[in-house]
Task: structure prediction
Amino acid sequence: MRVAILTGASSGMGFAVAQRMAREGYVLVVGSRDPSLAVKQLQAMGAKVVGVAGDLAEAATAEALVREAERLGRVDALLLNHGGPPVKPVLEVTEEEWRRYFELMVLGPLRLLRLCVPLFRRSGGGRVVAITSFTVKSPYPGIVLSNSLRAALVNALKTAALELGPEGILVNAVAPGYIFTERIAEWNRAHAEREGVSPEEVARRTTEGIPLRRYGRPEEVAEVIAFLLSERNGYITGQQILVDGGLVVAG
Ligand SMILES: NC(=O)c1ccc[n+]([C@@H]2O[C@H](COP(=O)([O-])OP(=O)(O)OC[C@H]3O[C@@H](n4cnc5c(N)ncnc54)[C@H](OP(=O)(O)O)[C@@H]3O)[C@@H](O)[C@H]2O)c1
Result:
């Protein structure tokens, strides 16, 4: 039996990873503030899954996720994911927001990693992946919280990869480009309303800047993450892999 703890796994890319890993036979511990619907959907696929409700910024959430894995006897894979921070220019982010999103996007994932390491050691190794963003490589105006806090996490994870590599714990990040999830659909609808154009026009303008000329699909990101989280990944660690249709290379 192999066990994966997957946070931010009730929708979008995280849920696609959960579906992919359920098909590979992993027992899943699925976290989000409300994972109940996702748990039902995964069970309907025949997956063995436990849901843990809680905010990743809070220590109690990480402790509850690890407790479930301990009950199952082991952990082999860890996905670090959550929703995106608010869209705000650098001068408008309050100190309270900096603290709140540091706790969610840096401290929360690192705390969970730390709590998982003793279980990885018992299993003789482990695989960790964080979902970040292409904007870590190519910062975008208006999203300073994402640009900077994800960069902090990526460098902390690279450090962890160097320190934990000798124990067979492989740590990577996957940076998505524009991936069509419900969040992007909402974003397009909001922009369309503001600009007096159709959501399709907003989508067209975005995708014309992507070399592959389309949004990515959550399953395409999940495929890469599931590989990195599995023992099929034997020799990739300390990397941030872009799944962005060529966006950053072209920029
Ligand atoms: N989609 C894109 O094009 C794109 C591009 C670059 C980067 N990203 C980033 O990649 C990540 C995943 O994106 P997505 O589009 O798949 O997002 P999504 O569909 O909004 O999924 C986010 C997941 O995180 C959970 N979550 C949100 N806040 C949380 C919190 N405080 N604590 C614990 N869980 C929390 C959500 O469930 P609950 O609501 O139940 O908590 C959900 O399961 C996000 O950080 C996003 O900013 C996305």
